[in-house]
Write a structure and sequence with these properties.
- By secondary structure, the protein is α/β, with parallel strands linked by helices.
- The protein has a single domain (2-206), classed as 3-Layer(aba) Sandwich (Rossmann fold), CATH 3.40.50.150.
- The chain is 25% helix and 28% strand.
- It has six helices and nine strands.
- The protein has helices spanning 2-6, 14-22, 54-64, 81-89, 100-112, 149-153; strands spanning 43-46, 49-51, 71-75, 92-97, 118-122, 135-140, 155-166, 171-179, 182-191.
- The strands form two sheets. Strands 5-4-3-6-7-8-9 form a seven-stranded mixed sheet.
- Helix 2 (14-22) packs across helix 4 (81-89).
- The radius of gyration is 16 Å and the shape is globular.
Length: 212
């Protein structure tokens, strides 16, 4: 999978590739789909949610520029696959999931696989994890129409946020770096993610910029 679907498409970062090799993707998909686990495609994991394709996971991880001492916030635990990849690279990962079934299942699996540097919360990811902030990197695994203000507030100086922005059919993967002059934005290309679910609608005044 890593050689044929990730390296072959140009990703050369050794730390990201090593993390992808160490995480057994087949453990993070439903039993009936494990035969497809090493194909470069998203797969359904229940409740209308998918596990991202391996190349997108590697691209988002690379864009977040996760260091060995970094504290990382993930919004959208899902099956826990991206969580595990981040945990292979960072000092600690805090991950928030709004679907209780996924939160419980991912927690059990990550514990079984021996990840001790992961903290999970069943909550609205739009609000992040303020008491654990600031974070060196924030990775959002669902598409938001507007940049969530609370997540940007929890990003450390010099920190990176990787987030899909846009509506149901027009999304761009964006990297934001927090600088003294304000967020510096970089477009990483078109993507398609499930919408970010939150318990209330984001306020326009909390949004950095509307997209889509």
């Amino acid at each position: 999978m890593v050689r044929e679907q990730i390296v072959a498409r140009g990703l050369k970062d050794g730390r990201v590739l090593a993390a992808m090799l160490r995480v057994p993707r087949h453990r993070f998909v439903p039993p009936g789909l494990q035969g497809l686990a090493h194909e470069d495609r998203p797969l359904p994991i229940g409740c209308g949610v998918t596990i991202s394709q391996p190349f997108i996971v590697s691209e988002m991880t690379l864009a977040a520029a996760v260091g060995t001492r970094d504290r990382v916030l993930e919004v959208g635990t899902g099956s826990g696959y991206q969580t595990a990849v981040l945990a292979e690279m960072a000092a600690e990962v805090w991950s928030v999931e709004i679907i209780e079934e996924h939160h419980l299942r991912a927690g059990a699996l990550l514990s079984e696989l021996g990840y001790r540097n992961v903290h999970l919360r069943y909550a609205d990811g739009y609000r992040g994890w303020p008491e654990a902030a600031p974070f060196d990197a924030v990775v959002v695994t669902a598409a938001a129409r507007y940049l969530p203000g609370p997540l940007l507030d929890q990003l450390a100086a010099g920190g990176r946020m990787v987030i899909p922005l846009g509506g149901s059919f027009r999304q761009r993967l964006v990297r934001l770096c927090r600088t003294p002059e304000g967020p510096r934005r970089e477009d990483l290309g078109a993507v398609l993610f499930v919408p970010l679910t939150c318990t209330r609608q984001p306020l326009r005044r909390e949004a950095a910029a509307p997209v889509g």
